[in-house]
Amino acid sequence: MRRWITLCACILALLAMPFAVTAAVIGDENATATPMGETEQMDNQTEDMTIAAYIEQDENLTRLAEAVNVAGLYDTLNGEGPYTVFAPSNEAFDALGNDTVNQLMNETDNLTMVLEYHVVDGEYTAENITSMAGNQTGEQNQTAGNESEGGVLDIFSGLLGGENETAGENMSTLTTLAGEDLNVSTTDGEVMVENATVTMADINTTNGVIHIIDQVLVPPGVNLTAAEETAGEETPTEEMAENQSGMVGVVQ
After folding, report:
1. What CA–CA distances, in Å, run from 234 to 27, 34, 237, 244, 246?
2. Where does 58-168 show beta strands of DSSP type E?
3. Contact (Cβ atoms closer than 8 angstroms) between residue 134 and residue 170
4. By its UniProt entry, which InterPro entries does this protein fall under (predicted)?
5. Cis preceding-peptide flag for 82 (omega within 30 of 0)
6. Which of 55, 106, 168, 205 is the most buried (most CB within 10 A)?
7. Would you state the pLDDT for residue 208?
């Protein structure tokens, strides 16, 4: 009888072993399905990229990425830096029109100048820009106050709001790789670059910072719309010829 009980216990133990092994395997799979720290790596992945690498993988910057490659600036934006890049979105390029963009892509010198006009040597966060603009505006106001004679006209100007035309607005300048200055300002907490608005600020990379803007900045001396503006327009000679032709028809 005891032998029978012992034999039954051994059989039950053998039958239970596969279930225990299966449960252990399933437990291990669940434990390794989501590696620890994966969320933190996703949050910080841009800090492991260069400026060029980030632009190349951002679906909102595909037209800028194409322009960077055509102009041969990938190596520059992939280099040591640090740089600050005001990156026009795809919508900013679309606003120029396909004809203008195609013209720009075919004019490498102008394309390079336009792109370099968006790049500043050094790293400037939105907080840095706000601080710089505020300091420079404060210095200008102090200088203006020292030069003012404090006459009756100044008093009335202040009462009528003449000194508050730029209230809430601070401005400074940054020198770009194109050799031209950019006016950067903050108005009610909104960062502006020339007439463009920063729609996404402080994308940190290994060699600088990116701010996405809603317009393509055009440096002085570059006319991107010349071809489109003259397209379809009659030249003065053609207009004169038509007028003369009409006059002849009337006389006859």
Report:
1. 78, 67, 8, 15, 16
2. 83-88, 119-121
3. yes
4. Adhesion/Biosynth-related, FAS1_dom_sf, FAS1_domain
5. yes
6. 55
7. 97
- Helix, strand, coil distribution of the chain in percent, nearest 5: 55, 15, 25
pTM value surpassing 0.90: no
| pLDDT band at residue 223 using 50, 70 and 90 as cut-offs | confident
State the residue for tokens 């102008």: 110
CA distance 201 to 84: 11
Which of the 8 DSSP states describes residue 125? -
Higher pLDDT, 46 or 54: 54
Task: Answer whether residue 170 shows pLDDT above 50.
Answer: yes
Q: How many Å separate Cα 98 from the centre of its chain?
A: 20
Strand order from edge to edge, sheet including 196-205: 119-121, 83-88, 208-213, 196-205, 190-193, 181-187, 169-175
pLDDT tens per residue, range 109-132:
999 999 999 999 999 999 999 988
- Determine the Cα angle at 176 with ends 194 and 96, to 5°: 50
HSE toward the beta carbon, residue 44, CA cutoff 13 A: 7
